[in-house]
């Protein structure tokens, strides 16, 4: 079971989980923005 220590410090696995979540959020935001940008560019060209 992963938990924080009594002195307030976090364990290594907790930090690794937090880093993994932050990395996943970064990729979701980055690729979502890229996908929406691509849809916008293709939509502009389709109207021409």
Radius of gyration: 20 Å
Instruction: Specify the number of helices.
Output: 1
In which range does the helix fraction lie?
A: over 70%
Chain oligomer state: single chain
Could you characterize the architecture of this molecule?
It is a single chain. The chain is an all-alpha fold. It is 75% helix and 0% strand. The protein is rod-shaped, with a radius of gyration of 20 Å.
Topology, element by element:
Layout: H1 12-47
Question: Characteristics of this structure?
Answer:
single chain; 48 residues; mainly alpha; 0% strand
In short:
By secondary structure, the protein is mainly α. It is built from 1 helix and no strands.
């Amino acid at each position: 079971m992963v938990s924080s220590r009594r002195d307030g410090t976090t364990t290594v696995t907790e930090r690794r989980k937090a880093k993994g979540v932050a990395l996943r959020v970064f990729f979701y935001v980055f690729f979502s923005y890229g996908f929406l940008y691509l849809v916008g560019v293709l939509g502009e060209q389709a109207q021409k």
